[in-house]
UniProtKB/TrEMBL annotation, chains A, B, C, D:
It comes from Microterricola gilva. This is TetR family transcriptional regulator. Pfam families: TetR_C_11, TetR_N. Keywords: DNA-binding, Transcription, Transcription regulation. Residues 35-54 bind DNA. PANTHER family: HTH-TYPE TRANSCRIPTIONAL REGULATOR RUTR (PTHR30055), TETR-FAMILY TRANSCRIPTIONAL REGULATOR (PTHR30055:SF148).
Length: 193, 193, 193, 193
DNA sequence: AGCTAATCGAGACGGTACGTCCCGTCTTAGC
DNA sequence: GCTAAGACGGGACGTACCGTCTCGATTAGCT
């Protein structure tokens, strides 16, 4: 383990300014309209400072996702013992976030970016961001053992269906159309008697 | 009504060459790597000939989708009376198409393009391409009346969940991982006794 | 011989605007301070329009020299039959031009540029510009035959000495110090009795 | 008078490494291609060490000239009492140095640098380097009093003509063309009977 | 058959952004 | 306080495409 490299240390303030600028500009400009040059000038930073640390604009966004700079919704799925209630709450929170146009644009931009960058795709889908899918899978597995899960489909498929339904709404719909939370929950959860 | 304008008629061969070039290049270059200039040179066509007839590269792709130049899967959902069999077949066909890397790349590019262009989004999601979702909704509504649909969720939500699950797999997964067709069908269809 | 290439013809007005901008900016900025980007914006032209036709900024300047866009002094050496008078006049004209600070800076910039570009060096020294040396050699050869040339040194060496003396003054002297025209003439011409 | 300041003393080895690197790189890269960054890495030195002691790359070159790091010719003009012999020898030595391509490139680079930097211009022309012009003037003045100088032109003008002829050859000629030493001497010196 | 007019491939145009190189300054730890 | 190292904000480089604008050469329908 080497203690410190020689030379000036990386500027944390520049790093943060760049990431904040990226997140601020993405909804406004869309992914393809977002340029490194714009991010640099918005952040008050030289272009080289960006290129020194990130290979692409997607990579900047990936780091933003991993650092939680895309606020607005909780990826956490509660576990109250009642699957129906937990899913309803989780979807409602997600829905509320996606009802906000800025956040909608941000997430669309992220999805586009993720298509063209493996690191961002991992960051977005696997680790935490968009649907918090792994956490959801875990919750559904728990529900399987307690008999609250409908049918016999694997928790992974159920989770992907729920998240996919939200993703579909996000990408396919122009207007801000909400998902039908109740129906989605009913799809997965064993109705309580 | 004027049947034909004076002057030289639009060249059908140029039109087709452009669309074929676009579809051929999209998987290779990705949406952002695809340029009008490249399409023009690939098609052996002047740039102006493209700009004369299409407002953007997304518009070219939209026309390609509408003309069925993106081969490889049938958007048709059969109606044999047996929902389980029909869905299984439809998903299997879709899955086979998406197992081919070239087609996968093509569809990813299309999804990206659709995010930034309303016309293409309509062409892709509503009219026919990706999931043929309206046809699916129709089939599920029919199944509801004949009691083959599980639970009480609306056909639209069910359709979006199925299509969303496929979309999620397309976008979120790096490797060519298949969807679990059986589980997806089980999610929606009332199991036969 | 092909009559015309296909495609839009080169814009003469852009070509002239670029060359005029280069000549206007060179004295003000010096050769190393002169940038392609500045020339382009001064000329109201895209950078690519410059790079399409010239490989370097020196090449632009070379074309300017060849087209006579660097006004201010006559390279012509008169031949009145009186070498002493002819040389005195030629040097006086040259001196007057070089007394003007703008022209001085221009010529300094040209000399610098010529060091790093073969084409410009030819344009500057051999064809016409700075000293009109070939014309001077010719005049001196004529004088040799009519016995007006002092000593036996070759006309080429004499010409280079005269031009060199001017060049030396141009490069080595900060302030606008004139050459001593009389002494230079005396160096070369047989004094009239 | 304080003999030494507190703190670490300036590194003489770094100073020499920088100047040697500059002189080594100048012929290879030309003046505009020579960068501080390249000099620093060639010298194995931090950039700041250069900027701390020199204001510009011309200043480094000026110091090189003053320290005699540009080897290859003697600026000294002998005084044997025989002007013709002394000039012939001086020009021959100069010519030999300038016949070497590396030295030629070096001197061209120096001349370019001198155009854009007053300090270097002084160092190059007035103090010692290129032509040792002041020494030459002195020698010619001596010759005037002893009647060895041709005509009545001022020694300064004669010196500038000789040096200018060499300078002209250096700048204007692509190939390594020699000056005609005999003719140049004849131009200035009273022929011995 | 000639005229008119919109098309075609080609490619130059004024621009914007790219990703790189270097500027001159600043900030590290080490001697 | 100097050193090597190297990050910083900035500016220019030369390239790739953008979408527009000529070019001369077709090629259709209408006189």
């Amino acid at each position: 383990m080497r203690s410190t490299r020689p030379g000036r240390a990386r500027s944390e303030s520049a790093r943060l300014a760049i990431m904040h600028a990226a997140v601020r500009l993405l909804p406004e400009l869309g992914f393809s309209g977002l340029t490194i040059e714009r991010i640099a000038s918005e952040a008050g930073v030289g272009k080289q400072t960006i290129y020194r640390w990130w290979p692409s604009k997607s990579a900047i966004l990936a780091e933003c996702v991993l650092e939680g700079l895309t606020p607005g919704f909780s990826p956490v799925v509660a576990n109250s013992g009642d699957l129906e209630a937990d899913l309803t709450e989780w979807l409602a929170v997600l829905q509320t976030a996606l009802d906000e146009p800025g956040f909608r644009s941000l997430m669309r931009g992220m999805v586009v970016a993720a298509v063209e960058d493996d690191a961002l795709r991992s960051a977005l889908y696997e680790n935490l961001a968009l649907p918090s899918e792994p956490l959801l899978v875990e919750r559904l597995e728990e529900a399987r053992t307690s008999g609250q899960l409908r049918g016999s489909a694997s928790p992974r498929v159920l989770a992907e269906s729920l998240v996919g339904a939200v993703l579909y709404r996000l990408l396919a719909t122009a207007a801000d159309q909400s998902v039908r939370v109740d129906d989605l929950v009913e799809l997965v959860a064993q109705p309580r008697r």
